[in-house]
Amino acid sequence: MNSRNRDPRPYASSPCMAGELSSDYFGSSAVDPQQAVDVARWRKAERARLRTERMSLEATVRRSTSEKIIQNVQELFANRKIMRAGSVVSMYWPIKGELDIRPLMEALHGEGILVALPVVETKAAPLVFRRWMPDTRMERGYWNILVPPAEAQILTPDAMLVPLVGWDMEGYRLGYGGGYFDRTLATLSPPPFSIGIGLQSAQLATIYPQPHDIPLNLILTEAGLQSDLGG
Known about the structure:
The chain is α/β, with parallel strands linked by helices. 27% of the residues lie in helices and 18% in strands. It has a single domain, classed as NagB/RpiA/CoA transferase-like (Rossmann fold), CATH 3.40.50.
């Protein structure tokens, strides 16, 4: 059976998998603890598989795929008029083989759009968004990711471009397991327009969404728009 279509629920999991779970998994009586552990176990394996596949991409393929994604985002913004001068968009600094859309950050900045980068200031809490500009002096943050410095302006995003490890057609995102984007989307009001950015090959039949998972408005890959929940 293809691993991306395998149902994790029938399989027993080691008790050590409880460490993969946020307390949110067990905060609802509607969640079966064993099922939640099985889902976490399956997600951990899928993350490892998808990240290995992503890291194995040749540099030329990664570059051309990133360029296609940038083109797709620009077309989406233009066609739907999602952003305008003065709007705030949260982007991301690529790590672990993620698609590199940093040229888009510079392009949007040049159009008068305010660019922010997500920062973990407090562990297991919603993200904070610090303004980025081409001359921003970056520093090492959580997970050793480069982020704007603490004195950078704090912004609230109107839209978010969110990196994906995996995704499904219901708009759900498989990330790194920290739950930061879900916590953030659940906290911001009004919620920003959220766009998942990932590889077409990272599509899953489902991520087995749990109560804490929040679907994104759109999923965008190098092949174009894949999931559109509007919003």
